[in-house]
Design brief:
The complex is a heterodimer. By secondary structure, chain A is mainly β. In chain A, about 0% of the residues lie in helices and about 55% in strands. Chain A contains no helices and twelve strands. In chain A, strands 2, 5, 6, 10, 11 and 12 form a six-stranded mixed sheet that branches. Chain B contains no helices and twelve strands. Chain B has strands spanning about 5, 10-15, 20, 25, 30-40, 40-50, 55, 65-70, 75-80, 85-95, 105, 110-115. By secondary structure, chain B is an all-beta fold. Classes of the chains: A mainly beta, B mainly beta.
Chain lengths: ~110, ~120
Amino acid sequence: AQSVTQPDIHITVSEGASLELRCNYSYGATPYLFWYVQSPGQGLQLLLKYFSGDTLVQGIKGFEAEFKRSQSSFNLRKPSVHWSDAAEYFCAVGAGNQFYFGTGTSLTVIP
Amino acid sequence: DVKVTQSSRYLVKRTGEKVFLECVQDMDHENMFWYRQDPGLGLRLIYFSYDVKMKEKGDIPEGYSVSREKKERFSLILESASTNQTSMYLCASTPPGLDPTGELFFGEGSRLTVL
């Protein structure tokens, strides 16, 4: 069965520091992978997605993610965090016409 | 610009009331979804629909029903609201299949409080 694990419930980083959010998935075939961001009181917005090809994908707002098949991971990174990046981040796997979400990582950015 | 609109951002209802949550998308998408979001639990799929008048149960359909009479509109119905249905409800849509550009487009959410 498909599943997505985000092991970090909450992360706090200083503004300007680098960020890595972890995501591990379980899926039998080649996965379609997504990262979404949710600002407080809002819906989810797509940051980036991986379908095939280059395993390092670039997204909006300066985010990138790397697909590592051997580790079943799709970690999200940003070299320098801005205060406006404070939000909830969700990793998801697409399978057929369905999507499976992790439980999310809440990011706090301190000045 | 693509848009998924949830008509009610905030609702307060009483136990036992019938509740309708409406979702409209303007992208001519076939697939529509209703998720429930709770802290620590992420997004859980309630129901989804691949076409008009078609529905499929998700992971937590108990206590909910849906209606899709038109392609652009997908409604979530709580026949008799209970306090444990207090939550954020998210509607989403996507074109059929995931390749090559499929992604979920989300509405802004409907926060329901049941007293």
